[in-house]
Amino acid sequence: MATIYYESDCDPSVLTGKRIAVIGYGSQGHAHALNNQDSGNSVVVGARPDSRAWSAATADGVAVETVADATAQGDIVMVLVPDHVQAGVYRDQIAPNLRAGSMLMFAHGFSIRFGAIEPSPEVDVAMIAPKGPGHLVRRQYLDGIGVPGLVALHQDATGNALALALAYGHGLGCARGGLIETTFTEETETDLFGEQAVLCGGTTQLVKMGFETLVEAGYQPEIAYFECLHELKLIVDLMWEGGLAGMRYSISDTAEYGDLTRGPRVIDEHVRENMRKLLADIQDGTFAREMMAEEAAGRPNFQRLREQNADHQIEQVGAKLRAMMPWIGEKAAVKPGA
Ligand code: NAD
Ligand code: MG
């Protein structure tokens, strides 16, 4: 059984008198800074002068400094710039200002697991990784609930790293849902696998292929959109609340029989083989090397794929249909471009 820490296992007072530097103010950064500040912790954001991050943090009422100055102030330095820029920001601005005995933190183990950052042995290195998008980490905190998270230690120079990491997770609101103990390796590999095979890659491809199959067979794109994308949320909500059985309890017997007999024909043993190959590419560093080379080349492939996907018919049809359901946009956790 996994070790899971809840609020009663955390001692927020170990952060008394300590300052948290949150480096970056994007999806995760804004949630970490605001939640910790609202929880009574002392927070400073590190950002580039004249950036949108700087003005957004200022408008939200959080202290902002350059990355170098925020790091110098931080007893805890949480690195929330994108994974592919972390090594450069660490080398040039964080490492020279990181005090011995302070704690370097991450929300994803990529840079440590694949060796892009090798911290000095004089600092603690820990992870609090919320298992959800940053905007929900903020929204659920405000709602008095919390996205669960992972906690891991890479270095415990002070002997206090776990207590500090748990207090940080408590301030972030993740201890409400539970902080599962893991390692940087397990977090990094399972996180990459989940987003590639199931959550993002697997799901978007499943939705697109379902939509295309119906449209190609002559059905109306609007019907195909509702069937393959819109309704997915309703089904996933039931799974989230009650597991696969909870969802199956709610659907009709016709739907359940189709699910049980046809599901394994769609997602078959070839898919399992493909999933194993994705996992192997993650474990041996092939994916990380490819992603870093893509970045170094200026993202040619990434950019092309983004554009291709943005032009897909499902996006055009969806935009029109969602405009007729304004409540969806009003409740959105994130407004693209905002
Ligand atoms: P993001 O792209 O939303 O935000 C990055 C922030 O870093 C922005 O404020 C940007 O202005 C700033 N930034 C970029 N380059 C910079 C530089 N050179 N110097 C200073 N600031 C710079 O990133 P994110 O999605 O919040 O990801 C941050 C970390 O959190 C990553 O390690 C990611 O894997 C992890 N994570 C993200 C999510 C998520 O919900 N997006 C979930 C779990 C973990
Ligand atoms: Mg993830």
Give keywords.
single chain, 338 residues, alpha/beta, 16 helices, 9 strands, binds magnesium ion
Polypeptide structure, described:
The chain is α/β, with parallel strands linked by helices. Helix 1 links the parallel strand 2 and strand 3. Helix 1 packs across helix 7. The radius of gyration is 22 Å and the shape is globular. The model has no long low-confidence stretch (mean pLDDT 96). Bound molecules: nicotinamide-adenine-dinucleotide and magnesium ion.
Summed over residues and divided by their number, the pLDDT gives a mean of 96
Task: Give the % helix.
Answer: 55-70%
Shape: globular
For this structure, the quaternary state is: single chain
Radius of gyration: 22 Å
The biggest sheet amounts to: 9 strands, mixed
Poorly predicted runs are: none
In short:
The chain has 338 residues and is an alpha/beta fold.
Q: What's the topology here?
A:
Blueprint: E1 4-5, E2 19-23, H1 27-38, E3 42-46, H2 52-59, E4 63-65, H3 67-73, E5 76-79, H4 83-94, E6 103-106, H5 110-113, E7 124-130, H6 134-142, E8 149-155, H7 161-172, E9 179-181, H8 184-199, H9 201-216, H10 221-250, H11 253-266, H12 269-283, H13 286-296, H14 300-310, H15 313-323, H16 326-330
Parallel strand pairs: 2-3, 2-5, 3-4, 5-6, 6-7, 8-9
Antiparallel strand pairs: 1-9, 7-8
The chain binds nicotinamide-adenine-dinucleotide and magnesium ion.
